[in-house]
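The freezer alarm interrupted the setup, so I double-checked each line after restarting. Inputs confirmed:
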Amino acid sequence: MALVNQPAGELSIHYRDETGSTGSTKFHFPFATLASVVFTQADLLSAALNAVTGCAIDGYTISYTKSEDTPETPDDGARVENKGRFVYRTANARTSLFSIPGIIEDVLLPNSNTIDQADLLIAALNTAVVGGALNFCSADGSDLTAILEAYQVMAGGKKPSNR
Amino acid sequence: MKYAVDTPYAFMDAEASAFASLIAPLTGCALIRQRVIYKAVADPRDAPDTGSAIKSQGVFIMTTSDATPLELFAVPGILEEVLSDVEPVAGYAIDPDNAAIIAFIAVLVSGGFTNPFGDAITALDAGYRQSRA
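Predicted 3D structure, all chains:
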């Protein structure tokens, strides 16, 4: 079992027409290409595309995807909609959050949807996220400084892609 | 999870593995995919041309370095100016001799772009306008 990269990364150029409708073009590049190189090429490509489209180019996304070659079997009853939501304070006095799908019941306080922050697994996660081994930040680039709250929530999932 | 925009892919890839090992015992779900995404947004945003339409697309079929796979992509709002005016393909075929098309293809080829299988794009094979939702 391992995460295996696809042969190519993906560059999506995003467009907007006169009516406000949006669309995109997908290009590919060798997976090993540095993002800084792809940024340069994407800027050149966007400039070239400006001469062949009447739409406005609003930006682009560069993505690198790895897939598990032998996925494990999910636990019985595991649901991605059953999420653990972790909300953190940030250095600029705002908040940032992430969710873990299929959060297990074992880390919830009894008869509650509150995640037990004293649980050893949860404590290890929070330690890594806040000034530990991981260097996550908020959407505006601010550091995550402390856990604010963590709770279970039922939130939307997606249809399986093989149906 | 979010990072500063100039964070190298290899750094995020390594941290994603560490993060996955921390959350694996917290979830009953199986990990199937990991994706690192960089975003760039135009600032300021340009105004689209009058009459431009996303669904009027230029479809480009490209040859690649591998004999079998090709690459195909569509450019929304393709301009009338880059279409051929030579019958019998006037008005729908992409003009391969148009200067803007030549420049666009040159960027694709010199920039090292590939098809999804990693085969390098080598040239424009054919192109046409199509109405696509």
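Quick read of the result. Residues 7 and 15 of chain A are 26 Å apart (CA to CA).
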